[in-house]
Amino acid sequence: MAFLKSDTPFDVVKHLLVMLVVGALLLFAFFFVYLPITTHHGETIVVPKITGMRLEALEDYLDERDLRYFVDDSSYNPRIQPFTILTQDPAPGERVKEDRKIYISVSMKHPPVIKMPKLTEGTEKTAYMILESYGLALGKLIKVPDLRQNQVLRQLVDGKEIAPGAPIAKGTRVDLEVGDGLGNQEFPVPNVVNMPTDEATTLLVGQGLQVGEIFYQPAEDDQTDGTVVKQRPTPGPGATIRMGQLVDLWIAGEEPVKPVR
């Protein structure tokens, strides 16, 4: 009977090396051949530009490119068609993996409704800033006779007064009635000619008028320095003035030297 010859140590090492090489080849094939084929490992997609597109066309457009979308925000702009894509993230040209979600904002069909802010008792400038911060627009600016110059007296929409807190759609135009600094009451133009400047000023202010420009001219023989020699508007029969209006004065003599600070 023949006896089987046992493997030598060299044969054992040779078998182990073969097994290690085969194992390494299997691992290499799994990670660098099989997985990339089944998972598209390492493949990226260039993000297309979708701003300006309509929402109804977006899903099919992105499906063809193995991408998805999510509406993250919406806003209203009357100059843009409803359901138009306004912004996108990631930006066009960026590279992303398949099935990546693109976050978008879309223009709304109807403007959101907010509460009307209070504009009365503030100035015209303040009212404009408040309207802008609320997403409202300034409509007509209507000047009305009132001593409260540049103060908002009424706020109106479509000719009707709107109260603070009332519902109003963003983008609505709000008209403002603003005081022109003049009163409704008319009365004869007061005569301050030949009066000292300080007395003339006191009289005008006391009657709700304002001192306008003051001009100085050399005093003539019959004129006293510091007295009013002319005024505008000129007093006389039928001459009237309204509260808040200006009265210019011409004074005899030299203009007083203002102290140096």
Quick tags:
261 residues, alpha+beta, three-stranded mixed beta sheet, 4 helices, 16 strands, 23% helix, elongated
Layout of secondary structure:
Elements: H1 9-39, E1 45-46, H2 55-63, E2 68-75, E3 85-89, E4 95-96, E5 101-107, E6 113-115, H3 124-133, E7 137-144, E8 152-157, E9 160-161, E10 167-169, E11 173-179, E12 186-188, H4 197-206, E13 210-217, E14 228-232, E15 240-242, E16 246-252
Parallel strand pairs: 2-5, 7-11, 13-16
Antiparallel strand pairs: 1-4, 3-5, 6-10, 8-9, 8-11, 12-15, 14-16
How large is the share of residues in beta strands?
Answer: 25-35%
Largest sheet: 4 strands, mixed
Unreliable stretches, pLDDT < 50, 5 or more residues? none
Share of helical residues: 10-25%
Rg from C-alpha positions? Answer: 43 Å
Principal-axes shape call: elongated
Could you tell me the mean pLDDT?
A: 87
Number of helices: 4
Total number of strands: 16
Write a brief structural summary:
The chain has 261 residues and is an alpha+beta fold.
Task: Please characterize this protein's 3D structure.
This protein is of the alpha+beta class. It is 23% helix and 30% strand. It contains 4 helices and 16 strands. It has a 4-stranded mixed beta sheet, covered by helices on one side. A 3-stranded mixed beta sheet has the order 2-5-3, with helices on one face. A 3-stranded mixed beta sheet has the order 13-16-14, covered by helices on one side. The model has no long low-confidence stretch (mean pLDDT 87).
